Amino acid sequence: MSQPSVVELLLKWTPLLAQGFAFNLLISIFAMALGTAAGLFLGFGAVSTSRWLKQLSDLAVQFFRNAPWLVLLFFVMLLMPFELRVGPWVLPFPDWIKSTVGLALPVMANVAEIVRGAVESIPSAQWDAARSLAFNRRQTMWEIIIPQCIKRMLPAWMNWYAILTMATTLTSIVGVNEVMTTVGRITAAEQRADLLIPIYLYVLLWFFLYCYPIALWTKRLELRYRER
Q: Residue 3, CB half-sphere, CA atoms under 13 Å: how many?
């Protein structure tokens, strides 16, 4: 009996690979949301008038921006508990949640830097005009500065989301059952040397088809806002 072709094997395992890839996307969405929320607070701290808050925010940004992502993943995996005790109940703390937190840390630092750069790029005349209209700093920030910063931050934010999506494959090293873990199990089950390169190219194509439109959209936004 002849063995199935590589194409037949890829089609056979596509549903399982799709589940793993969907898990990668789920991790990327949660990590980006968590990192963005934390990065906004950290970015506002970096442009604060409080000296100690600004220095503390700058220190956190530089630390997490220059820390290897894989090291942060291992650090969070070892730091966080395997389960949580809530009264009489013991709740498991899944590895994918810990990995999401680990990936959110560098995203947080880079989002904070995006916020800081966008705020500082606003001409000082905007601040002067707000003061002349008796706006306090909070009103100036939220009603005048932040609305102008959104279009400046959006392309860079989208670019970092694409980077984060590709980085979710690192979670396979710490035991998360995502697409690369699934690939390893498939290759071990099939024991076909001719399947190795095609299946990795197949997964690579999925990431490309997901991230490339984001890159195109980012470039279009950059051009649109540059012309204004």
A: 10
What is the reported pTM? 0.88
Decide: residue 174, CB within 10 A, 0-12 exposed, 13-18 middle, 19+ buried. middle
Tell me the one-letter amino acid at 170: L
Compute the mean pLDDT over every residue in the chain, rounded to the nearest whole number. Answer: 88
Spell out the domains of the chain, with CATH numbers in brackets.
Answer: 6-79+94-227 (1.10.3720.10)
Length in residues, the chain: 228
Q: Which stretch of DSSP H or E encloses residue 83?
A: strand 83-86
| φ/ψ of residue 113, rounded to 5 | -70, -35
- SS3 string, 183-202, reads HHHHHHHHCCHHHHHHHHHH
Say which residue the tokens 């700093």 belong to: 137
| Residues 176, 99 contacting (CB under 8 angstroms) | yes
Q: Exposed, middle or buried: residue 80 (CB in 10 Å: 0-12, 13-18, 19+)? A: middle
d(CA 198, CA 190): 13
Which candidate, 51, 50, 60, 57, places its Cα nearest to that of 137? 50
Is 180 buried (19+), middle (13-18) or exposed (0-12) by CB count in 10 A?
buried
pLDDT given for residue 159 in this prediction: 92
